[in-house]
Amino acid sequence: MEVRHHIRIAGRARAPRPVGTVVRLLGRSILVGALALAPFAAPALAGEKPLRLPGGDVVKIDAADVAQQRPKAGAHPFATREQRAAVRPMRWSGAESAPPRAQAAPARVPAGPAGAADGGGAPPFAEYLARSHFPDAWEALDAAAKAAGEPAAEPAGEKDGAHHPYVRFPGNYYTSRWQLAPWNKIGKLYFTTPSGGSSYCTANVASGNSVIITAAHCVYTRGQGFNSNFVFVPADRYGVAPYGSFGWSSASVMGNWINQGGRRWDVAVVKLAGEASTGVPVTSYVGWLGRSWNQPYSEFHYSIGYASNFSTQYTTVCAGQTYSSPAEGDNVLVQGCDMTYGSSGGGWLRQFAHDSHGGNYVNAVVSGPHIGDFGQSYVGPRFASDNIVPLCNAIGC
């Protein structure tokens, strides 16, 4: 006997349908719904955790084993100075961008209230702590400076002049800089891509909870998955680690970076584990930078990175006014700068202040070249309520 039922809509009964038909329709609806949620409902790798947060969806991954948190010689691809010296910078492939489409000019008024979180200094004994924990690194740097005849202070007129609307000059090249804020809070992030290659990017300690901020393409390779074997070396200079090297415990990127890409989503956060040999948190050696969001598009920034077209051994800096571009879309900043590979993830600092734990707010990171202007200007995600805020909420900045 065939069982039938009636469905009443707006006071009128539809013709009865067999239960089998209803089950098939219901199953089809469930399947469509599941497909719509598929990018977020089924993590690609073990340990991935999709999180729905105010401001946007975030995907978080935890380090798989202790070796990821405490990289040591013989058990990790970036544990030694020699291993790190062989790593090439992450290239700009163009995959960071969403498919081109016509876009209206971005709003010049920030969406949402502007916000900022202050940076902080390491303890007064931080240099003593670092020298006692990593004596070989400090001796190597002292010897290199002496052999090069490096002056105690940078000479006047070191800036090499204006290039379009910016000025470029060395970052932590001089001993008078690399031990001071903000330079000692910026370093190299080494990692292995899902295809097995090794690369480095620039990253920035920007939280008292030992969280670094970098570009999403340095953490998650679109179409392949999360990178691995992250090792961060603050103030990396001439291949040595004066403040040690740090593994990781978790990392987060925006769901929009995974699903659609685009410069505005090209930001990621990584929570660091304690130093590989001492277990001491990175903030006890170098402190941390501030961070800000929902700020105006046009502000003066110092963008800092280990750009391989100038030197992989120390940072380079571009200082200039940022601006918006209709071609790049909303929440993307543009700055004149001729840095290229290796600068990815480098912080764009608002209210720059040398040798100060105030100001120095990370407000964007290097993503890649400005459309049609490779090697003359580049872009970064403007930190806002829908990218850096949910990322920090997910990982605990």
From TrEMBL:
Residues 89-120 are annotated as: Disordered. It comes from the Bacteria. InterPro entries: Glutamyl_endopeptidase (IPR050966), Peptidase_S1_PA (IPR009003), Peptidase_S1_PA_chymotrypsin (IPR043504), TRYPSIN_HIS (IPR018114). Transmembrane segments: none annotated. Keywords: Signal. Residues 94-116 have a biased composition (Low complexity). It comes from Luteimonas endophytica. This is Trypsin-like peptidase domain-containing protein.
